[in-house]
Amino acid sequence: AEQLLRRAARINTRAKRHLGQRLLEGAFSSANAQEEGRAWLRKAAAAGDAQAKRLLQSLPPK
Fold it and tell me: How far is it, in rounded angstroms, from Cα 10 to Cα 13?
């Protein structure tokens, strides 16, 4: 599931947001999941995803 979501995230804004959320939730094992999750949310927000922007704003500062 993780690999499919990662592939989709390369081309789909909503998938970018979902991947970022799942990484932040700890659903996928990644050494730097928090950092990577924020990065995917930033990519989704930059692509115009309003929900990703709100999620980023709600996260505590690093």
Answer: 8
